[in-house]
Write a structure and sequence with these properties.
The chain is about 40% helix and about 30% strand. By secondary structure, it is an alpha+beta fold. Strands 3-4-2-1-5 form a 5-stranded mixed β-sheet, covered by helices on one side. The protein is globular, with a radius of gyration of 13 Å.
Length: about 100
């Protein structure tokens, strides 16, 4: 299962997120759930960093991507919020393959 953890500050803005695991929906290379999640995560990180110059850090290792916002950003908030909504929609359609947690 893919688990997406979204970190929210006391003010309600996003501090970042991590996405880890494997969906297990299909074989590697033909897993549409994994492809949907991976693509959305990559798009979010790339737009934040390259498009909006958000002060953030990205770590990628094994089956985990961590994205940490170092300085509060309205653009990052909107994009991370949109990613969360997208992954929640996927988790409704594929509840055995994607889980979304907000802390």
């Amino acid at each position: 299962m893919i688990t997406a953890l979204f970190k929210v500050s006391g003010e309600g803005s996003y501090n970042g997120f991590s996405v880890s695991g494997h969906s297990g929906y299909s074989e590697a290379g033909s897993d549409i759930v994994c492809a949907a999640v991976s693509s959305a995560v990559m798009l979010t990180v790339n737009i934040c960093v390259d498009g909006f110059n958000v002060d953030a850090g990205t770590e990628v290792f094994d089956d985990t991507v961590r994205f940490t916002v170092n300085k509060k950003s309205e653009n990052a908030d909107r994009l991370i919020g949109a990613l969360k909504e997208h992954l929640e929609a996927l988790s409704e359609e594929y509840p055995d393959n994607v889980a979304v947690v907000v802390k």
